[in-house]
């Protein structure tokens, strides 16, 4: 999640753990602790793919955060003895640190909660920025500065509201998963790899991507749709043109669970992570090879490509689609109605 959300979460958690000992300083300390795991972005791993894949690694591991919180508690007690017992202080620090990666695990990016074991968790039920999760936390934190005697209680209420919303996001994901499963049943896409994630800043409109060999199908479906039929559009997924795949490409494929697109653009081979973003606004694209004048390919150290910026004119259409206006999909083709020349699905 974004830094503002993580800071707000850390502050609220700190106030709840501190209870009657809560104060503005506790809120500030909790906010700072809540952002510590993301400081791994300051570490350079040598190339953009490694930086992307290894983010949310060791600094988000429960195996690291627990002993690290103990060390921080020890250091704090030695440097500046507080009103808290060591156990209380350790609990407060650990809670602020651990809730950060646990929240991150609900996004699509992938969080290595059990690092150094190569296991990534990604529930994909909430977008990395979602005001409906963050605003309740910010409101109660601001209010608690005026009603300090109720600081812990207010922060507990905000935390409860945000947690209920997070639980709702999981329920919404399950509803969409059931809809997608039913829509693909009996088609050539049944049992194909499927990726589902919420579109930006909401849990109502969802993006669905289905892999189908050198093609992928992308569609949108809203919980407010009157018709559960999902309209998909077929897009070329491409394939890797060279005989061997470099180590960084294998790393990206594994990280994205094979949801990648291969393209030759001008003289470069580009690989794009299909999970993050939507339509043509996919921010994680990397050049892995370049063609020389004599038609030979030269491997590159991965280069991150410039991102396409979302055009404001598209936002109203996205909002209408969220509200269940399926006419926005008029230019798409449902897999059960596509002509044979579109991948001969049926």
UniProtKB/TrEMBL annotation:
Keywords of this entry: Membrane, Transmembrane, Transmembrane helix
Regions that span the bilayer: 58-77, 89-109, 121-147, 154-176
Keyword Endoplasmic reticulum: no
Pfam families: YdjM (PF04307)
InterPro entries assigned to the protein according to its UniProt record, in alphabetical order: Transcription_regulator, YdjM-like
Coiled-coil ranges per UniProt: none
Domain of life: Bacteria
Keyword rRNA-binding on entry: no
Name recorded for this polypeptide: Membrane-bound metal-dependent hydrolase
Species name: Photobacterium profundum (strain SS9)
């Amino acid at each position: 999640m974004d830094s503002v959300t993580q800071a707000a979460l850390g502050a609220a958690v700190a106030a709840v753990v501190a209870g009657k000992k809560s104060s503005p300083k506790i809120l500030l300390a909790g906010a700072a602790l809540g952002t510590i795991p993301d400081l791994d972005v300051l570490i350079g791993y040598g190339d953009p793919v490694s930086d992307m894949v290894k983010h949310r690694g060791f600094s988000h591991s429960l195996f690291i955060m627990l002993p690290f919180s103990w060390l921080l508690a020890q250091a704090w007690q030695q440097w500046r003895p507080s009103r808290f017992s060591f156990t209380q202080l350790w609990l407060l620090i650990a809670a602020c640190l651990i809730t950060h990666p646990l929240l991150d695990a609900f996004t699509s990016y992938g969080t290595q909660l059990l690092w150094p074991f190569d296991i990534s968790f990604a529930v994909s039920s909430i977008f990395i920025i979602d005001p409906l999760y963050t605003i309740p936390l910010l409101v109660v934190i601001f209010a608690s500065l005026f009603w300090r005697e109720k600081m812990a209680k207010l922060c507990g209420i905000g935390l409860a509201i945000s947690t209920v919303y997070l639980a709702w996001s999981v329920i919404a994901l399950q509803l969409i998963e059931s809809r997608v499963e039913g829509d693909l049943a009996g088609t050539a896409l049944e049992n194909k790899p499927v990726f589902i994630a919420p579109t930006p800043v909401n849990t109502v409109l969802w993006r669905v991507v289905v892999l189908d060999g050198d093609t992928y199908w992308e569609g949108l479906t809203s919980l407010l749709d009157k018709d559960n039929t999902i309209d998909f559009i077929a897009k070329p997924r491409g394939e890797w043109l060279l005989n061997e795949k470099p180590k960084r490409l294998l790393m990206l494929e594994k990280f994205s669970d094979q949801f990648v697109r291969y393209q030759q653009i001008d003289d470069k081979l580009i690989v794009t992570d299909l999970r993050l973003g939507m339509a043509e606004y996919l921010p994680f694209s990397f050049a892995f090879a370049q063609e020389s004048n004599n038609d030979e390919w030269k491997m590159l150290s991965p280069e991150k490509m410039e991102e396409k910026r979302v055009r404001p004119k598209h936002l109203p259409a996205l909002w209408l689609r969220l509200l269940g206006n399926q006419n926005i999909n008029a230019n798409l083709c449902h897999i059960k109605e596509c002509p044979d020349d579109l991948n001969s699905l049926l």
